[in-house]
Amino acid sequence: SATQTFCNSGTVANLTATGTTIQWYAASTGGTALSTGTALTNGTIYYASQTVSSCESTTRLAVTATINAPAAPTGSTSQTFCNNGTVASLTAMGTAIQWYAASTGGTPLSSTAALTTGTTYYASQTVSGCESAARLAVTATINAPAAPTGTSAQTFCNSGTVASLTATGTSIEWYSTNTGGSVLSTSTSLTNGTTYYASQTVSGCESAARLAVTATINAPAAPTGSASQTFCNSGTVANLTAAGTAIQWYATSTGGTALSTNLALTSGTTYYASQTVSGCESATRLAVTATINTPAAPTGSSVQTFCSGANVAQLVALGTNLQWYSANAGGSPLSTSAVLTNGTTYYASQTLSGCESAVRFPVVAIVNTTPAPTGSATQAFCNGGTVSNLTAAGTAIQWYAASTGGTALSTSTSLANGTTYYAEQTLNNCPSVARLAVTAQVQPQPSATILVQGPTDYCANQTISTNFALSGLQPASSTVAWRRNGTVLSGATGTSYLATQIGYYDAVLESLPGCATTVPGDSLAVQTPPILTPITGQSWAVQGVTQQYQVLGSTGGTLQWTATGGVIASGQGTTTANVAWLANGTLEVTSTNGACVETQTLNVVLSGVGLEEPTDRKGAVLYPNPTLRFAQITPWSAGTTVRVYATDGRLLSVPCADGILDFDGFAAGLYQVVVWDSAADQAQHLRVQVQR
User: How far is CA 161 from CA 186, 213, 291, 665, 688, in A?
Assistant: First the structure.
């Protein structure tokens, strides 16, 4: 290029030309090549040669150097900003302005970089592609006023406007948001519970921070209550009622002066109540219309006649919600159950629309008294009775369950023993106040059963002693008379009797005179002793062999055979018994006839096949062994079990009762017996020889 431009400065090294081994000169011919560090001069022509194959060109390229050096931009060296600012907020006059943190060098600042108060910032400009080396120095000042001060919660009565809000500061303005937004008009109405925000302006800068103030509009509602209030005979403002705080009454719905509490009320007039809450009086008021109700006295007959026992409830007057008094003014209402007194004056008031009349109606009471009927105070009845069976002397008798009050009993009502019934008579339509008390004695037919405590059969020459006792005696107060064979026994009146003679015994019970029951009993008898001859049969026996025994004569009894040392094989209860003997023992036969018992015995000694029970054994043993049929295991207990095996190991089913094995029907031979004692937790193996 014939013209080359450089910003602010340059050297020969910055010149450019296309060729080989370029050298620059100050002249178009001759001269010495310029050093590459030689500074360029604005408007000067420089000449470039090239060297090819060691030969430098004789002609040179002429290049004019232009040095472009823009001046620094211009502007205010001190710039002020409100609350904050960025590099973009700085101003300078020039082209393509850039800001730096230093007067030379450095990197251009971002336009969004926040400004710091008191800091100097430097502006360059770029003209024709060249940034000025000189820069404009600008010192930034950030003016940030504090928010105004004041109460954060402000209360107003009934209403308020923005002008009512208060804050301490300069040029106060109010907003509806804590940042941004438009200034509120001072006439804007305040809303309860809404927060408003105040700024102040100092030295032309409005504070970014704002004072938050929450407005409370204390607008008490009108008090509540009945819009129509009635008073009896008279009333004052103090009698008016309304629910609220610090109630005040007025003659108008708005404005005016509060009424005195002792001001008399006028019927049909409307009064207005306000309330004051947290220092604010309600703008609206409760309207209450007062009604003064003045009822007249009731009317009726001034003389009234009653029967003895009449009470205030029976007085009669024409009126509403009557109440009776003992005086014509003041006092307390009489109880409706208060008994009237003959010749006394009673006074009636009436209540209309909740108001009792101040004037009362007088009534003189005339009370007639009827005496109680007469009669027996105790009346007895057997096997029941009804009210119709009761007797009393009087007129129009009626019976009751209580001495006063209640409902007359039906004549068919059953009488209850020990209960008192009350008779009332009526004369001249007046029932007697007092009643005749009659206690009814009513008893049912007595009943019981007789328990026989002892034998009813005795043997000849035995002492007779059997007790007869009553069970379930009803009623318990009944009298008792014991009898033998229908004859009453002297002094036998208790609930039991010990009999010592034979005969039939029973008892006669009586609850009331004429109410008697005979309770059946039982007979005592004497039995004849049975006749039993001695036992016939051998007094010796072979062990395990059945032996027969007899009694040749037995009359009047039941037979029972018992063998000690043996087993009754058959014939029990007959005159002939078969016994299998296991050891020496005794045979006994008993004949029983009621209370009479006859016994015969026979001692039996063993001989022949078998062994005596050993006396020096240890553990369980079997005897007799060998045996023809029976073999006994000793010792024996309930926890012992037995198994019998053949010689080939087969388990056999051998009957065993209380330790006595029965080998009846088994072949002769040797058998293995295993005895298990669960208490000792051990088994014993024995052998027994069965013979035939």
Answer: 7, 13, 42, 132, 131
Instruction: Give CA torsion, residues 581, 582, 583, 586, to 10 deg.
Output: -40
Q: Could you tell me the two tokens for 514?
A: 């004429």
Q: In whole angstroms, give the CA distance from residue 569 to residue 581.
A: 10
Asked whether the beta carbons of 127 and 65 are under 8 A apart, the reply is no
Asked if the bond preceding 371 is cis, omega within 30° of 0, the reply is: no
Beta bridge partners of 480: 509
Q: How big is the chain by its Cα radius of gyration, in Å?
A: 71
Number of neighbours of residue 341 by Cβ within 10 angstroms: 11
According to DSSP, residue 220 is labeled: P
Structure tokens belonging to residue 258: 């509060």
Task: Read off the pLDDT of residues 39-56 as tens digits, 9 standing for 90 and up.
Answer: 999 999 999 999 999 999
Cα pseudo-dihedral 370, 374, 380, 386, rounded to 10 = -30
219 with 192: CB under 8 angstroms?
A: yes
d(CA 18, CA 2): 12
Q: Do the Cβ atoms of 356 and 323 come closer than 8 Å?
A: yes
Tell me if residue 163 falls in helix, strand or coil: helix
How many other C-beta atoms are found inside a 10 Å radius of the C-beta of residue 509?
A: 21
- In angstroms, the CA 251 to CA 257 distance is 8
212-240 pLDDT, tens digit each: 999 999 999 999 999 999 999 889 999 99
* pTM of the shown model: 0.36
Least reliable range by pLDDT among 490-494, 504-508, 642-646 = 642-646
Of 176-190, 525-539, 556-570, give the range with the top mean pLDDT. Answer: 176-190
